[in-house]
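Good morning C.,

I know you're traveling, so I'll keep this short. The sequence:
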Amino acid sequence: MLDKARGLPADQIFMDIEDAVAPIAKPDARKNIVAALNEGGYDGKVRVVRVNDLTTHWTYRDVIEVVEGAGANLDAIMLPKVQTAEQIHWLDTLLTQIEKTMGYEVGRIGIEAQIENAMGLINVDAIAAASPRVETIIFGPADFMASINMKSLVVGEQPPGYTEGDAYHYILMRILMAARAYDKQAIDGPFLQIRDVDAYRRVAERSAALGFDGKWVLHPGQVDAANEVYSPRQEDYDHAELILDAYDYYTSAEGGALGAVMLGDEMIDEASRKMALVIAAKGRAAGMARTKTFTPPES
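The tokens, ready to paste straight into the viewer:
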């Protein structure tokens, strides 16, 4: 898996020492991860390691061995089951001590915080604000479902009997608001039915519609669906670029220094520009090419 990840069209790969690794295998997992990171080959991908959560006795050794062994080739540490800001403070302090000891740039290694229970969600604002290292807030659906006694065994799907609305809407929005308030990424968690790509796409579309930046994949077969769902549709990307070009022109002296104008049947203004920037940025990040261009009207 460590080798296969090098060739996948994913924006980020994270190497796991937590739930995917049996307790007796964790020491070897640390060594394998350090070797893989130092061997390289993950060009263009954000490189992250998920350590064990702070209720276990493994966490400090996970962080020390991985960061001391491969910190120069590591972008972030993912801390699962975060419940309080103090847990982020602990990780921040330990990372700073290791960076100073090893001669790494202090503060370069980021933190990804995974929200997986009720206490973590209640404290998500403080968690997002706990350290400049925090880059991403992640929803961990399986442990969260268990923590609130949700009546379901299918991770991410609506629980039986919940027939109206979305049982995850409040959780997703709560994470999204904290992330956006503190300028962090918001990432949706995994969908465990790895061979049902249509179901993965359906579940992903919920968080994508709200504004989440992406979703985990557990299998190469989910990667294309994730990239498709979290990228804008071609017509939306084209429209966003047209709005930006038109607004730039009409607010210039040449265009009449106007603050609100018509683009076809649509009025656009500064708020339109901000919305268009979001869609255009996602499209550019996805490598999309525009198929329409703005032509200023003849004077």
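Safe travels,
E.
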